[in-house]
Amino acid sequence: AQKVTQAQTEISVVEKEDVTLDCVYETRDTTYYLFWYKQPPSGELVFLIRRNSFDEQNEISGRYSWNFQKSTSSFNFTITASQVVDSAVYFCALSVGRDDKIIFGKGTRLHILP
Amino acid sequence: GAGVSQSPSNKVTEKGKDVELRCDPISGHTALYWYRQSLGQGLEFLIYFQGNSAPDKSGLPSDRFSAERTGGSVSTLTIQRTQQEDSAVYLCASSLAMGGGFAYEQYFGPGTRLTVT
Question: Fewer Cβ in 10 A, N or C end of chain A?
């Protein structure tokens, strides 16, 4: 069975601090995809990144970076120099190659305090 | 370009009534998904469509829930004899395709907030 665990329910940091959101996944499939989505207070989920299981290279996009480690089944998301606009709920998700569902974690609510 | 749209944005209904929620996906997206998000909770997968077919209906909470998609475009989620526990935000998403070993990213609509009184 597939599962995504986001152990951090809620995190609060002061603006300009770095923050890492953890994501641990479970699957026996060798082909799978991992995603991160952002849900700002307005409610609409926004796609951030997709990573396939064969590409373990870390990715950086501006202040966002993702660390994919198959050895620990983790796909962690770091925001550098956080800003108030980063306040949102962040979801990690998993899709396996032979299935058509995307399994979402329960999300981490991130508060960036001014 | 136009994103995923959902209507109504808010719906208040009395327990026992039927409701219909509509989703209009991004043009050209063959895959369409319905999720439910209860207050402070994650996303609960309900059903997805590839074209007009729904290969996996296992996420529907009960037989009061049904969904259809016509013309490979608009989808309707129907909840019959609504119960208070059906109160949630119902989210629709679409993607270019699904299956075949590749997962495209999903684009989400703004959701329909359903309140059953």
Answer: N
